[in-house]
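User: I'm curious whether this sequence folds into something compact or stays loose and floppy. Could you predict its structure so I can see for myself?
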Amino acid sequence: MKKKTLFLQFALAASLLFSTAAYAAEKASVRDIPIGGSGQMQMVGTIEPTLLSVTMPTFVPFDISNSLSTQNKVVSPKINVKNNSNVPVQVDVAYANVDISNLKNTTWSDDGIVKANQIAIGLKEEDGDKLPEDLSHVRWLQANKEQNTNVLILDGNQNGTLYVVGTLGEKVSESGTFNVTPTFVVSKTSITED
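Assistant: Here's the prediction. I'll summarize afterward.
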């Protein structure tokens, strides 16, 4: 009989303990905290694991020439980008390593406006199925400095296309070579393309 009574007392104490905790949690969720006072609040979050995966080429050759009749003086292949994720992502350029040491007496333009001895390169999203002729909506690459330049927004499992575009001043040698190596960063975004 003593064991049964002891067990019932333990069960009653446990139920009172849990009902008090539930009551306190409910009461604390509507409690006012006066100015200058302090209080505690329990916050519960949910982690949604998401794998971000974007496929793009690692090497893109391009030719640049003043002899082209268009505003864009660069001929490049399409840069096909595929979002393999189920969520929208944005593709940004965080840094562009630019080496124009082989182009003597030439400097870089970060904004696409070039003087006689300057060159500028950027990225442009495909508009239609043809090589870009104008330089509207170009995301210009800034030489050897951190930047946060969005070049593409893709919905989940969407494909996109970029082109290398650019311009150069009339005194820039067309026989030299140079390297531009952008660092791309992919991140989840709530923005979706129209």
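Summary: The first strand starts at residue 54 and ends at 55. The chain has a mean pLDDT of 84.
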